[in-house]
Structure formats: structure tokens, C-alpha cells
Write a sequence for this structure.
């Protein structure tokens, strides 16, 4: 059985007809020729297919395309408008957060989700009990970053660079948003 769906991918509305069993990953790669998300394990275990779906990070191999009908999908290629470089992309290059590059688009989308989740004050398993205080961002320590990025595997082992890149991007985002810096420090400077 087939169904007609519409996805907004990296800012462009795209209509397509897919089998109802088609995953979002296959719709992106096979039907729309969007190559940023990669097919790694096809079981939701490696994270190489991570995209942002309505602003939240998801492994696209586990989402049916029909369930994403009408949604906004952002891939690593669509993070920065008009072909400019996203700060995460620059940080990954500067900190050698990639080697073969296969997992990198998923890593970068996941990292973008991590930055948003921490800024919104969503705790992780690495967040100390009772933190963050209401309305405050979660400080992205190396332990926080490792925990939050743990669903994205890198066969080359570029984890030290990935953690450093996400940390740099978090610090840059804080510097660009004084309210976030104030919230993280509890209002004391």
C-alpha cells in the first residue's frame, strides 16, 4: 500500500509517494536523494541516520515516513542556511571530530539536539540530582556531552574530538546568548 506525504526537508517542501512501510531514512535517501543521513545499522543503534524531526533528534531508520507526514526534517546539510557553515560543523573540523566522516552528519545533528536540550534544562543520566534549577540550562560538561552523545557511534574512535567540538559549540552558543550564560551561572557573574 502506498501513501502520499509531504516533508519539509532542510527548508524545502517535498511531496512524495511512499510505501507505508518506508522509513524516514529511506524516504530521505532513496526517494529525495538527500545523502546527509547515512544508513549504518538500520536498527537504531548507531546514530548515523540521526536527523532533527520538528526540532528533536531522532534516528530516522526507526521512524516511518508516513508518521512524519507534514513534519519539518533538518539534516546536517540543512543546519546552516544558504550553505553557510554551522558552528558545530566548524567545531568538528577544528577539533578533528571526524575521521572517515560516515557518522559525522548524524553526530552533528545529534549535537545540535544536545545543545537545544541542555539549553532547555533537560537533565540526562549524567546530570547531578536536583540540577538544573528551574529555568536554568544544564551545563555541558564533558561527562554530560559523552552521556548525551552516547547513541551516536564512531567506528574510527574520534570521540575525544567530538566531545571537544560539542563543548566548544556549547560555549560559543552561551557567549552569543547572555541570558543562557546568566541562567547557567545562576545569575551570578
Amino acid at each position: 500500500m502506498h501513501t502520499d506525504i509531504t516533508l519539509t526537508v532542510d527548508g524545502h517542501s517535498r511531496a512524495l509517494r511512499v510505501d507505508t512501510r518506508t522509513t524516514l531514512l529511506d524516504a530521505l535517501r532513496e526517494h529525495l536523494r538527500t545523502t546527509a543521513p547515512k544508513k549504518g545499522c538500520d536498527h537504531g543503534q548507531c546514530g548515523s541516520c540521526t536527523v532533527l524531526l520538528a526540532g528533536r533528534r531522532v534516528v530516522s531508520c526507526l521512524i516511518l515516513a508516513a508518521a512524519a507526514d507534514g513534519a519539518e526534517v533538518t539534516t546536517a546539510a540543512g543546519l546552516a542556511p544558504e550553505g553557510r557553515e554551522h558552528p558545530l560543523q566548524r567545531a568538528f573540523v577544528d577539533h578533528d571530530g571526524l575521521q572517515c566522516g560516515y557518522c559525522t552528519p548524524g553526530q552533528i545533528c545529534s549535537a545540535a539536539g544536545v545543545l537545544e536540550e541542555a539549553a532547555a534544562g533537560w537533565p540526562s543520566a549524567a546530570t547531578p540530582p536536583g540540577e538544573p534549577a528551574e529555568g536554568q540550562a544544564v551545563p555541558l560538561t564533558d561527562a554530560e556531552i559523552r552521556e548525551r552523545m552516547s547513541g551516536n557511534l564512531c567506528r574510527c574512535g574520534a570521540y575525544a574530538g567530538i566531545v571537544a567540538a560539542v563543548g566548544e559549540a556549547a560555549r560559543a552558543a552561551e557567549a552569543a546568548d547572555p541570558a543562557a550564560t546568566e541562567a547557567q551561572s545562576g545569575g551570578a557573574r
About this structure: The chain has two domains: 2-78, 81-184.
